[in-house]
Write a structure and sequence with these properties.
Length: 395
C-alpha cells in the first residue's frame, strides 16, 4: 500500500530527470555568454566610423537589454585601424580564442574582405556594418550587410543630375573598391541619360591631397563635380572646393551622402548649403522612429549626431539580436545566418529588408539637399526611390 505511491513518485522523478537530461546540451550552450566581436577602426583616418558604430551598438544594447533568449550578450571591441592585415589577425583571435558567435563592424572594404575567408571557414556570421563595395557580400556566404552599397546610391544621382540641368560632369573618387563602384555606376547611368563625362579622377585613399585634382576640375569647367570619398574625408573636400572657388566658377558639387556626412556636416559652414547628394540615411529623416533614435544617440554621446555609420551599426545589432531570439538562444553559426536572411524591419533610415538570396540590404534611397534647420546644417530629404536593391548584383 505504501510502496505504490513511492514507485509512482519515483517513476515521475525518472521522467522528469530524463527530460532534464535531454535538454541539457541546449541548456549548457544557452548558459554561456553570446559573444559579438566588433572589429572597427577606433584610431587613424577612419576613427569616426568606429566611434559612431561602437556608440550605436552600445545604444542598441542599452535600449534592448543585454540578455537575449536567456543568453548574456557580450560585445568585444577591437581596433583594426582600418588595416586589413590587422583585421585578419583580430578576426582569427576572436573566432579561435574568444569563441565569438558573430564578427561584426568592418569600417572599410579591405577590412571586410580580409575577414571573409575566416567567416566562411569557421561558419561564423560576419555582419558588415560600414563597408559598402558591392562585391563584399559575394566574398563569403556568411556575410550579411546592414550598411549600403555605392551602386545603390550612385545610380540615383545618375538619374537626378541630367534632369536638373547638369549636362557635363567630372568625377572624383577615392581610389579603391567603393570609389570605383561609385564612379562606374554614376557615369554609366549619367551617360545613358545623355550626360557627358568629361574626366574621371581618382585620389589615393591614404592622406589624400585634393588640391591638384580640384584645380584640374576648375580648368575643365564641367556643370558639376561628382564626388565619393569615405566617411571622415568629406569636410576636407568641401573646404578645398570652396577655397579654390569652384562654386564661384559655376561648378556645382554633387555627391554620395558620404561627403555631406552628418558626423561633420554642421561644421562645414554655409558654403555647404544647397549641395545635393543621394544616400540611404539622414539624421533629419522625418520619421518618429528616427527622431527617437537621434535624440537618444545624442543624449548618450555628448551631443554627437549619428551618421549613416551609426545606423549601420544600430541595425546590424538588431539583425543579430533578432536572429539570436529566433534560434531560441542557440547561437550556432548556420542557424543564426538563416535567421538573419529575410529580416524586414523599420530602421531609423526607413523600411529595410535583408535580401535572403544576396544577404545584402534593400532600402530606400533619398535625394537630399543641405539646408539650415533650427540654425544647424542638415541633409534634408526631398525625394525618394523606394526599396532599391544593389544594382551591382544584377550581372
Ligand atoms: C567605405 C568606407 C566609408 O567610410 C564609406 O563612407 C563608404 C564605403 C568602404 O570602405 O567600403
Amino acid at each position: 500500500m505504501q510502496r505504490r505511491p513511492f514507485l509512482q513518485f519515483a517513476g515521475l522523478g525518472a521522467i522528469a530527470l530524463a527530460s532534464a537530461a535531454a535538454s541539457l546540451p541546449a541548456m549548457a550552450q544557452a548558459s554561456g555568454p553570446f559573444k559579438i566581436g566588433l572589429i572597427l577602426p577606433m584610431t587613424g583616418q577612419q576613427a569616426s566610423t568606429g566611434r559612431q558604430i561602437e556608440a550605436a551598438a552600445r545604444l542598441y544594447m542599452a535600449q534592448n537589454g543585454d540578455t537575449v533568449a536567456g543568453r548574456k550578450v557580450e560585445l568585444i571591441v577591437k581596433d583594426d585601424v582600418a588595416t586589413p592585415d590587422v583585421t585578419k589577425r583580430l578576426a582569427q583571435e576572436l573566432i579561435v580564442n574568444d569563441k565569438v558567435n558573430v564578427i561584426a563592424g568592418f569600417g572599410v572594404t579591405p577590412a571586410a574582405l580580409a575577414a571573409a575567408p575566416l567567416a566562411t571557414q569557421a561558419k561564423v556570421p560576419q555582419v558588415v556594418m560600414a563597408a559598402a563595395t558591392s562585391s563584399i557580400t559575394e566574398a563569403s556566404p556568411f556575410i550579411v550587410r546592414s550598411s549600403f552599397t555605392l551602386p545603390q546610391v550612385s545610380v540615383a544621382m545618375g538619374d537626378w543630375a541630367p534632369k536638373n540641368g547638369i549636362k557635363s560632369v567630372v568625377t572624383l573618387v577615392a581610389d579603391y573598391g567603393p570609389g570605383n563602384d561609385a564612379e562606374k555606376f554614376f557615369t554609366e547611368r549619367f551617360a545613358l541619360n545623355g550626360g557627358k563625362v568629361v574626366d574621371k579622377l581618382r585620389v589615393p585613399l591614404r592622406n589624400p591631397d585634393f588640391a591638384p585634382f580640384l584645380q584640374k576640375v576648375r580648368d575643365a569647367k564641367p556643370d558639376a563635380l561628382f564626388v565619393f570619398v569615405p566617411s571622415g574625408a568629406g569636410a576636407a573636400v568641401m573646404k578645398q572646393f570652396l577655397e579654390r572657388g569652384l562654386d564661384k566658377a559655376g561648378i556645382k558639387l554633387i555627391a554620395t551622402g558620404d561627403v555631406t556626412d552628418d558626423d561633420q556636416l554642421n561644421d562645414m559652414g554655409e558654403g555647404a548649403l544647397g549641395v545635393v547628394t543621394t544616400h540611404h540615411y539622414s539624421a533629419a529623416h522625418p520619421s518618429a522612429l528616427n527622431k527617437k533614435f537621434v535624440e537618444a544617440f545624442e543624449k548618450a554621446n555628448k551631443g554627437m549626431r549619428p551618421n549613416f555609420m551609426a545606423v549601420g551599426g544600430y541595425d546590424g545589432m538588431r539583425i543579430i539580436y533578432e536572429a539570436l531570439k529566433a534560434t531560441g538562444g542557440k547561437g550556432d553559426g548556420q542557424a543564426l545566418l538563416d535567421k538573419m536572411k529575410g529580416q524586414v524591419f523599420e530602421s531609423p533610415r526607413g523600411q529595410v529588408l535583408i535580401d535572403a538570396q544576396t544577404r545584402d540590404i534593400v532600402q530606400d534611397v533619398y535625394l537630399r539637399k543641405v539646408e539650415k534647420k533650427d540654425g544647424k546644417l542638415y541633409n534634408v530629404e526631398f525625394d525618394v526611390l523606394k526599396a532599391v536593391k544593389d544594382p551591382g548584383k544584377a550581372k
